[in-house]
Amino acid sequence: MRAIVDAASSQGWPARIAAVVSNRADAEGLQWAASRGIPTSTVASREFADRQAFDAALLKEIERFKPDIVVLAGFLRILTPAFVDYYRGRMLNIHPSLLPSFPGLHTHQAALDAGVKVHGATVHFVTAELDHGPIVAQATVPVLSEDDEGSLALRVLEQEHIIYPEAVRCLVDERLVVEGNRVRIVDAAVTNNLHHEEKNEASALDS
Q1: Catalytically active residues, by annotation
Q2: What confidence category does residue 143 fall into, taking pLDDT thresholds of 50, 70 and 90?
Q3: Which CATH number fits the domain that encloses residue 152?
C-alpha cells in the first residue's frame, strides 16, 4: 500500500487515493495513511456472523468513498462472489508466488519445500476463484541454496513493490484489456517492470 501511495504521488498519477480501509483497527497501514492525509476506515470482521454480512458492510463502507478501483494489499480474507462481482475488472490483488503455483498461504515455504529454482510474485485481477484471476504482472527471483522462508519472502517483497504500483498505474490509465483469462497491456513497450526479473549474482544459475 505504501509503495502504491508513494508511486501515485511521485509519478503524478491522474488519480487520487480515495481511502485506506481495513478489517483490523490495529493495522499499521491505517496510521501511516492518516499521517499522509488519506481518509481511513475500519470494518471489523470479528463483529459479523458470517462472510456475507461482513462483505456487505465492507462494500457499503468502501462505496462511501466512491472509488473507481479497489486494490488489495495484505488483506487476508476470502471475499464472497457477490463482492467480487461488484468490482469485477476493477479490483487487483498481489500474491507472493508465481501463480498458478502455490495459491493460498505460506507460499514461500511451499516453494522451498517443492524445490523450485524460481519464485516470485503475481499481480492479478480478483475473481471468485481464490488466487486464480487473470494475471497482469509477474516478477521472478531465483531461489538460492541458502534461502529460508524469511530471506526469500524479503526478496520477493522487493519485487512486489516494483510491479504492483506499475500494474495499478496501468489500470488507472485504462491500459489493461482482459481477453478470457489473459491480460493484454496496451502500449506495453513503455512499461518495463510488468515482468521483472531480479538481477543478482545468482541469475546466471537459472539461465
Answers
A1: 95
A2: very high
A3: 3.40.50.170
